Amino acid sequence: MKHSDFHIDMEFFTAAGKWQCTDVGSRVVVAISLESREMVRVHYDDNKERHEERFISTDPRDLSGPPYGVVEHVFDEYDLDGCYSRAEEASR
After folding, report:
1. Fewer CB within 10 Å of terminal CB in the chain, N or C?
2. pTM, full prediction
3. 89: Cβ–Cβ under 8 A, 6 or more apart, which residues?
């Protein structure tokens, strides 16, 4: 895909899966992965000890934003050749 093909909220594909564009800069595209993701929930008990709970999430609320509950990835000009408008193209 070309930089001019991208717009906010559009979905696209790479070999790593499905993505949603969250921003288009003058030279980069920013996106979040729409694939299931590992999440970490941290809490402290009454003794102030830290506990981590790791789990796989498919909850669509993780993808609400901005700000997003998942990391945004930056795709630069060299990455755009690996972006496709259809899943079938990404799996070739």
Report:
1. C
2. 0.83
3. 13
Tell me which residue has tokens 């996106």.
Answer: 31
Tokens of 4: 């001019």
- Look up residue 69 and give its DSSP letter: S
Per residue in 65-75, pLDDT (tens digit) is 889 989 999 99
Q: What range defines the domain where residue 11 resides?
A: 3-90
Domain count, the chain: 1
Q: Distance between CA 7 and CA 29 in Å, rounded?
A: 9
Q: Which amino acid is at 63?
A: L
- Which strands form 73-75's sheet, in the order they lie side by side? 11-14, 17-24, 29-33, 73-75
**Residue length of the chain:** 92
